[in-house]
């Protein structure tokens, strides 16, 4: 009898030859072909299946994470849009009321030239605000143009109690930078009112 242990998987050839105790063997031999199959987890189909499973799992995890980031981005944009809409709704009525009062004051005082100039600038500003409010972002150039008109109106309305100057770095490309509309105006408004209140 013969036995083999821990044979690797593969094909083997076995030759059997009969003999006696004296060491005499027959010339006739028996040839057997054997094949040892590997465990299923060593087979090519199983390895391929596992690779595909790992790749699919990685793809699904990555897709889930990407979708989560997109949802977070959408939520942040919604919050930002909501905050901007709230800010605009608070700013516009207050500013409109004061501006209309100023126009009325010029008319009562029979300052037709001042009233006409103020009304012209005011109408341009309102047109800019309405136009820019349609977009999530506008160029910094447009935002600064709106800011200049706002400051001009406020300076006239407050009888030039303050001076202003907008300084822009020459390396800044105003037409290529995008920002949310009306994001600078509240800071200018606060600066004007707090500055004037501190002088009184």
From TrEMBL:
Transmembrane domains' residue ranges: 45-66
Xref: InterPro entries: Bact_2-comp_sensor_kinase (IPR050640), Ig-like_fold (IPR013783), Sig_transdc_His_kin_internal (IPR010559)
Residue ranges the record marks as coiled coil: none
An example molecular function term from Gene Ontology annotations: phosphorelay sensor kinase activity
GO cellular component terms given for this protein: membrane
Keywords: Membrane, Transmembrane, Transmembrane helix
Keyword Transmembrane: yes
Keyword Membrane: yes
Name of the protein this chain belongs to: Signal transduction histidine kinase internal region domain-containing protein
The organism's taxonomic lineage, starting at the top: Bacteria, Pseudomonadati, Bacteroidota, Flavobacteriia, Flavobacteriales
